[in-house]
Design brief:
The complex is a heterodimer. Chain A contains 16 helices and 2 strands. Chain A is mostly helical. Chain A has one domain (about 20-500): Up-down Bundle (Cytochrome C Oxidase, Chain A). In chain A, strands 1-2 form a two-stranded antiparallel sheet. The radius of gyration of chain A is 23 Å and the shape is globular. Chain A starts with 11 loop residues before the first helix and ends in a 33-residue tail after the last strand. By secondary structure, chain B is α+β, with helices and mostly antiparallel strands. Chain B has 2 domains: about 10-40; about 50-175, Ctag/Cox11 (Pfam 04442) (Sandwich), CATH 2.60.370. Chain B is built from 1 helix and 9 strands; from the N terminus they run αβββββββββ.
Amino acid sequence: MGDHHHGPAKGLTRWLFTTNHKDIGTMYLWFSFAMFILGGSFAMIIRAELFQPGMQLVEPAFFNQMTTLHGLIMVFGAIMPSFVGLANWMIPMMIGAPDMALPRMNNWSFWILPPTFLLLASTLFMEGGAPAFGWTFYAPLSTTYAPPSVTFFIFSVHVLGISSIMGSINIIATVMNMRAPGMTYMKMPLFVWTWLITAFLLVAVMPVLAGAVTMMLMDVHFGTSFFSAAGGGDPVLFQHIFWFFGHPEVYIIILPAFGVVSQIIPTFSRKPLFGYDSMVYATASIAFLSFIVWAHHMYTVGMPVAGELFFMYATMLIAVPTGVKVFNWISTMWRGALTFETPMLFCLGFLVLFTIGGFTGLMLSIAPADFQYHDSYFVVAHFHYVMVAGAVFSMTAAVYYWLPKWCGRMYNESMGKTHFWISFIGFNLAFFPQHFVGLAGMPRRIPDYALQFADFNMMSSIGAFIYGASQILFLYNVIATIVSGKPTSDEKTWEGAEGLEWTIATPAPYHTFETPPAVR
Amino acid sequence: MLALSKNPVIDTVAKLVVVAVAMFAFVFVVMVPLYDVLCDALGINGKTSGEAYTAVQAGVDESREITIQFVATNNEGMPWDFKPSVTVMKVNPGASNDTVFLARNPLPQDMVAQAIPSVSPTRAAEYFHKTECFCFNQQPLAGETATEMPLQFIIDRDLPRDIRTITLSYTIFDITEMVGGAVAAR
């Protein structure tokens, strides 16, 4: 091993062969931002086409490819890897570990991702086009009627599933075995807790997704009939398997976001988190409930009434632990010495908008009402409130919050606040009107729509362009910080910040906690 | 707790790999069969029983008449002419009823078909008993010939009283390639 205190290697091989959790975290974060821009540009094509009714810019088939790739890339390429990157950077520093438990596997789980998404994006140039069956890839659209590129799609899903499983095994092994002495489970920062639970969800359901695409592969190429009624199978079975994966998946996306918010709000309230224990139990309850509510995505397939009622009540039950969390965050701020730096602004945006998304989720959980909302733009509005204003806002908050610790330079605060306000306004302009067009009957995933939806769609498109453009400002701010931001060497960037990551030097040295810190 | 390795990290990893592999297997060996069993047992999805029903002598409920509608659909690419001989029947619960579906293979080559039934409303599926059905078997048909395919059914006397109309739909699928072209001319 040689010298213990060596810095990073030089050149490209540093990144190719690195086993350093900070390097790998950085690569995950940059990769996910690249995917965010790619998936976002697909969204811009979608919104440009929907700017006016009638066929404007693209063919319907291409439009479908855009909605599909936008969803797949945002879920699997942008949001999930960004939180894995954050976990890589922060978990060892938060629990006082020198690195992740399995550094070489960590390198591998990152480096299989870029080729996978290159493969997925390359399907755009294949004969028959990219997958066009929506990110939920329901059979038989994704089997009998799929373009030939579906095989590449299946392979991509397999590989990114393997990457996710390796990443989460690594996180669990790290958290369970490498905590500093004295760091008991109930002393762990909440971000670590939410990621531990998320990682268990990933290990449990990514194999289910792999099973679903394996069955698709066999139906397409090997003459089986899992999802084909002709051979005794059933396309509805696909929906059950997909959502058995898919519902835990949405909590996989949002739980780390909860963790981030639970770190940032106490810092800028200058108070400890209210109800730490109940936060942990609420997270665990949400994770458990996520396994028994999947069929609320498919109320209209013709389930027996008893089934609809079970999934309806179980889904509504999730509002309880989620409400516990929201009230705990609010109670944390109660009588706190609040300041509103950029990370806090994004967390407050998260709190308000995620709650709206949660409420529309409650509306959707009501089985008889869902028959109206199903597959309408109301659903699109709902999940963008929880995915974008939930996961992406909290991720953005996390970057602003920890960026000074990562690179030893302070970002431009007024540019950050500008970014927040443009994002906030653009986001709401884009997605709030979609509730109305959805309730009025506009279906999702269509390139053209009835004339009465024209005004709201134009607003939506303008909002989406504003939100998209504000991310360029974010990119500029981050690069400007890294290149020429005002140097800072305060161990605590934020006076109210608590936790082991704020006890080490700024910028964070390449190796930290080679001797474990003492925890109280 | 059972330790799979002396190294605690390897132990954690080994256990998690077991969980991941088990969940992958779970999809195939539990979820798929369980779904089929549940659908059969509960009549979910409008699936009627795939096996002949043995009639129970319980008398006929003359007090009400149920309207049975028959629908025939061809799956994509299936060239047969396929239709019910009558589209609507009025039957009494408990009585045995007969009808036939007509099928003609317009192509010169021999083919095999499979009909898949579905009952609507789905709640009625478990009360729709078939004592004989062409859907129980694969249906081979020589080129350019026609056939009558029999269906015999009893509506259960326990059918909820609010159900007055039941639609029985068959979709016919071309399974010639699936059975390997081994068409038994019959």
